[in-house]
Amino acid sequence: MKLLKIYSKGKILNFDAYIQLQELDRTNPNFKGCGNEFKHNRDWWVILDKKKTIVAYCGSIYTQGICIFNRAWVDKRFRGLGLHKKLIKIRLKAAKENSFVAITYTTKDNYPSANNLISCGFKFYFPEYAYGGDEMLYFHKDLN
C-alpha cells in the first residue's frame, strides 16, 4: 500500500487519485451534506492498494495556526491494519510546519478512532463551540 499526498493548498498533486477521491468523498454516506472540502487551505492524503484504488483517506484544514483534522475514512476491509494511525501521524507531521495545535472530533461510538487519536497524543477536551455538533467527542494536541 502506498501513502500519497494528492492535494495541497489548492494544488492538485496527483490528478487520477484526486478525481477518485472526490467521487469517493461525495458518495461516502458518513460525509453526506458536507460539501466541497477541496479548498486553498486544505491538504488531502490517500492510501492506495496495489490496484491504485483508494482504501483510506484524510484531510486537514489550516487556519490561524490551527490544524483541523477533517474527514478520515478507512475501507472496512482494511481496518485494523494501522492505516488510521498512519493518517493521523502524517497530518501531525504536516501540521507542525505552520500550526501550534491540532484539533479534531469523532462520534461517541467510534472507539477505534478515539483510541487511535489518544495513542497518538491527543487529549479529550470540551470546545467553547461544538463545531462538529453536540454528539461528538473532541480532541486536541499541542504541537509545540
Describe the fold and architecture.
The N and C termini lie far apart (31 Å). The protein has a single domain (2-102), classed as Gcn5-related N-acetyltransferase (GNAT) (Aminopeptidase, 3-Layer(aba) Sandwich). The model has no long low-confidence stretch (mean pLDDT 90). 24% of the residues lie in helices and 36% in strands. It is built from 3 helices and 8 strands. It has 144 residues and is of the alpha+beta class. A hairpin with a 2-residue loop joins β1 (2-8) and β2 (11-12). It has an 8-stranded mixed beta sheet, with helices on both faces.
In terms of topology, how is this protein built?
Layout: E1 2-8, E2 11-12, H1 15-27, E3 42-48, E4 54-63, E5 66-74, H2 83-95, E6 101-107, H3 111-119, E7 123-125, E8 136-142
For the biggest β-sheet, the strand order reads: 2-1-3-4-5-6-8-7
- CATH fold-level assignment: Aminopeptidase
Secondary structure class reads: alpha+beta
How many strands appear in the DSSP assignment?
8
Helix/strand order, N-terminal first:
EEHEEEHEHEE
- Our count of helices gives 3
* Low-pLDDT residue spans: none
- If classified by CATH, what would the architecture be? 3-Layer(aba) Sandwich
Radius of gyration: 14 Å
What's the number of domains? 1
Q: How far do the termini sit from each other?
A: 31 Å
Average residue-wise pLDDT: 90
> What is the CATH domain class?
Alpha Beta
Mind summarizing the main beta sheet?
8 strands, mixed
Strand residue percentage:
35-45%
